[in-house]
Write a structure and sequence with these properties.
Strand order of the largest sheet: 3-2-1-4
Radius of gyration: 12 Å
Order of helices and strands: EHEHEHEH
Structural class: alpha/beta
Number of helices: 4
Shape: globular
């Protein structure tokens, strides 16, 4: 069975906690992480590797993330001010 591929946009407090929950769900795969702060996105992506998953691509531009990642769904966990825009 193919895994359902998702991109996670926003990995601060809300998104960081959500990321941990998503890791325990079978048959889904994070293919991209996006955050305005590259170091935060990179740290989040590296946490997948630490837990034995493939490293998601890292983005700071949510439009590029959506266009290039090949995801089936986008999970938006940004701050309130950016949530609707994304």
């Amino acid at each position: 069975m193919k895994k359902f591929k998702y991109a996670l946009i926003g990995v601060g407090n809300r998104g960081g906690q959500l990321k941990e929950t998503l890791m325990i769900i079978d048959d889904i795969e994070c293919v991209a992480i996006c955050d305005l702060r590259e170091e935060v996105a990179e740290k989040a992506a590296q946490s997948y590797v630490t837990k034995g998953f493939n490293k998601p691509a890292v983005y700071t531009d949510y439009k590029k993330c959506i266009d290039e990642s090949g995801c089936n769904a986008v999970i938006v966990a940004t701050a309130w001010e950016a949530h609707c825009k994304v």
